[in-house]
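Project standup — Tuesday

K.O.: blocked on the structure for the chain from last sprint. Re-posting the sequence here as requested.
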Amino acid sequence: MKITVFGGSGFLGSHICDKLSEAGHHVTIVDVQPSPWLRPDQTMLQGSILDEETVRRAVDGADMVFNYAGIADIGEANNRPVDTARLNVVGNVMALEACRQAGVKRYVFASSLYVYGKSGGFYRCSKQSCEIYIENYQAMHHLPYTILRYGSLYGPRADQRNAIHRFVHEALTTGSITYYGAPTALREYVHVDDASTATLMILDPEFENQNIIISGNQPMRVGDLFKMIGEMLGKELTINFQNDPNSGHYQITPYSFMPKIGRKLVPPLTVDLGQGILRVMEEAHKAEHPELQSEGGYLVATDD
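H.V.: unblocked you, prediction finished:
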């Protein structure tokens, strides 16, 4: 199939594009930034989801359109509410309208577990609005969709806005971690490779007009996660819990009353959380010490 991915240069979007290409689909990436991970068998269209001509060109001839564009960090969304509404909500509607006009067979949207909870701030507001628009485009214009509600992602290609990436970076560089919630906060972290593998599964027709939950299967309290990171690094970390009720993050569950229940999708084989964090540590350490290379399982300094 011909598949267009808005936001395909980003953390999750780039992994989705890789999985789609590996499965033999023709992928066009649309993003304001060129993808650092662009494959020879992928097409790059640089531009904004808010540019009508770019969006029209991007969806023309596409069988399916994936939307991973916009502001995905809760803190950033709370600090930029107008940009969040513009990029997340208006951009989503522009993509929907272009898909309707082009006769796209299905629209796939990256939503969040926060969408119908009480946490998440302006990020949650934007995802709620997007889901309502998508469902109404299906009801009024018969545009099929799949909404994917992702949990707490981590893994390769993440930056400092990603929670686990930031935790590991702070632990390695400062010996401390600052967390705006409480140590009892419960999370189901999901490796980005597992999330993208599960995403590929929704191409099946049975997932049309469905809301799908994609999260981890190893619930862990944040306090225990920090203990694990400290044990892996072999040092006692200083943990600064802010217990900020206005941080936008949930304590035990992101759910409250759900107007539309989502089915949870978990791939048969998943990355163990501990092994996944070790890989994040290796990447973070390599970024901090580019003079070191891995040889036979050891880090050695390169000759000048």
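K.O.: great, moving the ticket to review. The first strand starts at residue 2 and ends at 6. The CA atoms of residues 66 and 108 lie 5 Å apart.
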